[in-house]
Amino acid sequence: MEICNVLKYDRSLYPSKAVFFYQTSEKDFVPLEAEINRIRGQKAGFTEAFTPQFKPKNLAPQDLAHCNPLTIEECYVPPNVEHVFCRFSLRVQANSLKPCGCSDNSVFSLLEELAIAFKECGGYKELAKRYSKNLLLGTWLWRNQNSGNTLIEIKTSSGKCYQIANTRLLDWESCWPAAEQLVLDELSHEIYLALTEPGIFWHADVTAKLETVFCQEIFPSQSFGEKAEAGEVSKRFTKVQCIDGRQAVSFNSVKIGAAIQLIDDWWDDDSSKRLRIHEYGADKELGIARRSPDSNKSFYSLLVNSEYYLSELRKLAGTPDGEIVPNIYYLFAVLIKGGMFQKKAEAKGKSKEKITSKADK
């Protein structure tokens, strides 16, 4: 298969922002707010005292003792509050079954047939299980996972309510107790149906209840903007404005989606971690691509093998004990993420002629 000039998929996972709040005896929703603090930052960076060639700068002894005034936002649990909540919603749609835009009919048909074969072989069930694990383990809480006991509650549009009493007792790799495994299986089945049945409109309301210690620090998403001027806030949090005008700190939807899609451990046979689904296997911790173009494991390197994968899936359909190869799981995880996967259209002949003539002159 050749990658065509127009090829795009709508994403299948639609998380909302995740809002932090707490409860009191009078109210069940009190937004958790950020506070602005002005601090005296230390001059302790490498460039404060050394050149790029690692040579000491010509500084007076007191130069590195001066403070670096900063204005930042911080967020802490109010005194006497024992639990903080974080809540978001998630919609799942069956958008990976076919492209939402494609300039080549044969490519469109091939990818549609590939999705049907993947579904018949049970491939979507494995992906649904992985998404469900991240939801139930509270992976989407990011740095806030390192808190006290955490309860996860998920209410779905089917009328079901799933609970994990304490995420700290579970792990991605471990064997889950029977009750928690049943929750995982049932939630996975609902997400599987939503990923594979276009007529289903499925959504879930996800809430984490975190046990906190006195005035514990909370870590929402940071918003990126222009470089702050002197005296302005240099670090801002993402917020949601409530109907009473107060602003609750939050996670942006992209960060929630990134956590749900933290499932790629197929990038190597001896992979040591799960990566967020990415066309080149971006490893943010080390700043490298685990699926570089020359590794033949990038999304595009695998996409052009769709005809071969279709034939393999059709063989598996008749063998109950057959296993889907990891590359196919990864391929569909990217399609579920969605995006534009086309190559650039080549310059037309006339444009090439013009470029050539100018170069000759």
Fold topology:
Layout: E1 7-9, E2 13-15, E3 18-22, E4 30-31, E5 35-42, H1 46-49, E6 67-74, E7 83-92, E8 101-102, H2 105-120, H3 123-137, E9 150-156, E10 161-164, H4 178-196, E11 202-211, E12 222-223, E13 236-237, E14 239-241, E15 247-251, H5 253-260, E16 262-264, E17 275-276, E18 282-283, E19 288-289, H6 299-303, H7 306-316, H8 326-337, E20 339-340, H9 349-360
Antiparallel strand pairs: 1-8, 1-20, 2-7, 3-4, 3-7, 3-15, 5-6, 7-11, 9-10, 9-11, 12-13, 14-15, 16-17, 18-19
Helix pairs in contact: 2-7, 3-4, 3-8
What is the rounded Rg? 25 Å
Number of strands: 20
**Helix proportion:** 25-40%
**H/E element order:** EEEEEHEEEHHEEHEEEEEHEEEEHHHEH
Question: Can you tell me the number of structural domains?
Answer: 2
Task: Measure the end-to-end span.
Answer: 40 Å
Describe the main β-sheet briefly. Answer: 9 strands, antiparallel
- Percent of residues in beta strands: 15-25%
List descriptors.
361 residues, Type I-F CRISPR-associated protein Csy3, CRISPR-assoc_prot_Csy3, 20 strands, nine-stranded antiparallel beta sheet, globular, alpha+beta, single chain, 2 domains, three-stranded antiparallel beta sheet
Written description of the protein model:
With 361 residues, the chain is an alpha+beta fold. It has 2 domains: 7-24 and 80-340, no CATH class; 35-74, no CATH class. 28% of the residues lie in helices and 24% in strands. The chain contains 9 helices and 20 strands. The strands form 6 sheets. Strands 2, 3, 4, 7, 9, 10, 11, 14 and 15 form a 9-stranded antiparallel beta sheet that branches. Helix 3 packs across helix 4 and helix 3 (123-137) crosses helix 8 (326-337). The longest helix is centred in the middle third of the chain and has 19 residues, at 178-196. The chain is globular, with a radius of gyration of 25 Å.
